[in-house]
Amino acid sequence: MDGALTGIKVVELAMWAAGPGGGAILADWGADVIKIEDPDGGDPFRGFLTTGVGATKGLTINAPFEIDNRNKKSVAVNIRTEEGQKIIHRLIQDADVFLTNLRPGALERYHLDYETLRAHNTKMIYVGVTGYGKAGPERDRAAFDYAGFWARSGIMATMGEPDTPPPSQRPGMGDHTTTLSVAAATSAALFARERTGVGQEVGLSLYRTAVWVNSIDIQTALLTRQDIPRMSRKAVGNPLFNCYEAKDGKWLYLVMLQSDRHWPTFCETIGRKDFIHDPHFANTALRSQNATELIAILDPIFVEKTRDEWAARLDAAELFWGPVQTVEEVINDPQTQANGAFVPVDHPSGEQIEMITSPVDFSETPATIRHAAPELGQNTEEVLLASGYSWEEMARLREDGTISL
C-alpha cells in the first residue's frame, strides 16, 4: 500500500540529525528521498561511532545514522565544484522538495540558495533548517541542538534542582523535535501548492522550535517580564504534580493537575484519610502554601512500597500518574510494543534489527521502513542515470572528483 507522500521527490542536502531526521519521516511516509553527501566521508553522522561520541559497548551498527537515514538513496556529489552544483540544479528540476540544513552563507556560496534553485523549479518547496534562523546577526552561527535548542532557549536554565549545575539533554532531543516540524511544514506547503500551483520557501530553526517547546514559560515571562525560576521537587506548588521514589528505588510521577478533584481519593489510596480535611492540606491553596511540609510527609510514605505496588493502588483508584522509566524499560514496555513503535528491518550487515517507526499512524496510507540507511554513494549511478546523465558523463565526473559511485 502506498504511503501518504508516495510520488513526492525530495532532494536532501543535510547532515547530522535535524534535517536528515525530517527527511527520514518524509521517506517513511512514502517520499522518494535522495540524500546528497560529500564523496569525502559523507554525512559526518556516519562517523558517530568512530568519534567516540556515540561509542557504546558492543554496538557495531550506527544507531543514530540508521534512524535518520533509512529509506533514502545516497548520491555522492561534491557541491563545492561548479559541476557538482549543476548536478543539484538538474536533480531539483523535477523535485517536489529541496531539504537542507546547511548554513545560509554556505548555500549562497554554493549557488544552492532558494532564489537560485527557484529559477530551476518554481513549484519546488524549499525547506531550510538552521540553528538560529535565516535572519539576524547569527544566521550563520553553527548550532547543534545542545546549543541552539537546549541551552539557548531557557529550557536548560530552568531544569534541575536549584543551586545545582544545569542538566544536559540526551542526544537528538532538539533535533528530533524539529524533525516533526520539518515533516509537518513540508506537508502543509505541499498541500498549499496543490491549491495554488506555487512553491515556496519554508524556514525552521532549532532555536525557534525550542522557543515553541518552552512556550508556556516564555509566554508567561512575556506577560510578567519576570524570569522563570527553577523549582525544587521538595517545594513544588502542587505536591500531587510531583515525582516520588518508591521502595525499590524506582520513581513515579503524579500528574494530578486538578488537585482538589483528586485529593480525597489520593488520601484514601495512600492510607491517610485523616489528610482529607486537615487544616494544613484541605484545599489547593493550603497544599501549595504548605507544600514543603506535605512533600516531606509523602516522601517516606511512598518509600514504603515498590513502584509496582503503588501502580496497582493508583490505577485501581483511577488516579493520574506515570512511571519514570529507564530506556531499557521503554523498549520492553508492552504499551510501546502494542502501538507499533518498533518494526523489524533487514540490515546490510546481515542482521535483522528493530527500528523505531515515525510517530504517526495512517489508517489508509501507512508509514513503512522499506530498507536500512544506504552506504555512501550507493545510489549515485542509479539517480544520475534517471536524471539523464550518460555513462560517459558520469565517468568524467568521477575522474574529476565531482562524484563517487
Quick summary:
With 405 residues, the chain is of the alpha/beta class.
Question: What's the SSE blueprint?
Answer:
Layout: E1 9-13, H1 18-28, E2 32-37, H2 63-69, E3 72-77, H3 82-91, E4 97-100, H4 104-109, H5 114-118, E5 125-130, H6 145-151, H7 155-158, H8 173-196, E6 200-205, H9 206-213, H10 215-224, E7 243-245, E8 251-254, H11 259-269, H12 284-289, H13 291-302, H14 307-316, E9 321-324, H15 327-331, H16 334-338, E10 342-346, E11 352-356, H17 380-386, H18 391-399, E12 403-404
Parallel strand pairs: 1-2, 1-4, 2-3, 4-5, 5-6
Antiparallel strand pairs: 3-12, 7-8, 8-9, 10-11
Helix pairs in contact: 1-8, 6-9
Which labels suit this protein?
Rossmann fold, formyl-coa transferase, domain 3, 405 residues, three-stranded antiparallel β-sheet, 18 helices, seven-stranded mixed β-sheet, 12 strands, 39% helix, alpha/beta, 2 domains, single chain, elongated
Counted up, domains total 2
Structural class based on helices, strands and sheet pairing? alpha/beta
* Mean pLDDT over the full residue set: 95
Shape: elongated
Evaluate the radius of gyration. 26 Å
Strand order across the biggest sheet? 6-5-4-1-2-3-12
Q: Helicity level, as a percent range?
A: 25-40%
